[in-house]
């Protein structure tokens, strides 16, 4: 028999990282982007995971790497065409995540009408915190997120400001692709995204719940 796969280490075996873009109006505004009428989705490979305390690797083809702070929702069981009313029953817990973005590459992709894969899906582009069981977060829409670079506060936001709610996102995604146990959905970033450079230290947290630290 195969050894059980603990959700506490979902990043070691979870398959899919599904990301939602522009899910905070203030971030869409700072990026000079239109507000979406439905969730804007893109994917990262499982090799994008970086556990707390490890190094974030800068992609060699980018000179403008940005941090984007996000609440991640970890799925607890297989989810296919889940109704919104039942969506939270499929959640195992949460993690704080960074959607590291090669902004210069993304800008070029946008200009050319190309997918964002080069800008979003490189190795070590998804740093994650420790797993937080669902029971520790009674209301994921009532959390305060923060991020500091070298001690300077860069991002601060509240999950109450999401455009699309977590149940809506789970239902929407699961009607397009089947989600498996251990998969994660990144729910978008609040405003304040910005550049990091080599040897910068990033600290981030969910106020009162979990924190994490990475070196670039």
Automatic annotation (TrEMBL):
Gene3D superfamilies in the cross-refs: Fumarylacetoacetase-like, C-terminal domain
A Pfam family matched in the record: FAA_hydrolase
SUPFAM superfamilies per the UniProt record, alphabetical: FAH
Record keywords, A-Z: Hydrolase, Metal-binding
Entry keyword annotation includes Aminoacyl-tRNA synthetase: no
Domain Fumarylacetoacetase-like C-terminal residue range list: 17-216
InterPro entries named among the record's database cross-references: Fumarylacetoacetase-like_C (IPR011234), Fumarylacetoacetase_C_sf (IPR036663)
EC number: 3.7.1.5, 4.1.1.112, 5.3.2.2
The family this protein is said to belong to: Belongs to the FAH family.
Protein name per its UniProtKB record: Oxaloacetate tautomerase FAHD1, mitochondrial
């Amino acid at each position: 028999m195969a050894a059980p796969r603990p959700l506490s280490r979902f990043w070691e075996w979870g398959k899919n990282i599904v990301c939602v873009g522009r899910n905070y109006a203030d971030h869409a505004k700072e990026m000079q982007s239109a507000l979406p009428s439905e969730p804007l989705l893109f994917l990262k490979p499982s090799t994008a995971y970086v556990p707390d305390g490890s190094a974030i690797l800068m992609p060699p083809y980018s000179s403008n790497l940005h941090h984007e702070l996000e609440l991640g929702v970890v799925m607890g069981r297989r989810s296919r065409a889940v109704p919104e009313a039942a969506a939270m029953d499929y959640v195992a817990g949460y993690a704080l995540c960074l959607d590291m973005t090669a902004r210069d590459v993304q800008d070029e992709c946008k200009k050319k009408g190309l997918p964002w894969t080069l800008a979003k899906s490189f190795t070590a582009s998804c740093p994650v915190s420790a797993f937080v069981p669902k029971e520790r977060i009674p209301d994921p829409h009532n959390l305060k997120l923060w991020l500091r670079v070298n001690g300077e506060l860069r991002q601060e936001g509240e999950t109450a400001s999401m455009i699309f709610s977590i149940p809506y996102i789970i239902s929407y995604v699961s009607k397009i692709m089947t989600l498996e146990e251990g998969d994660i959905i990144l729910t978008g970033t609040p405003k304040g995204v910005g550049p990091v450079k080599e040897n910068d230290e990033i600290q981030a947290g969910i106020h009162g719940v979990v924190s994490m630290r990475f070196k670039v």
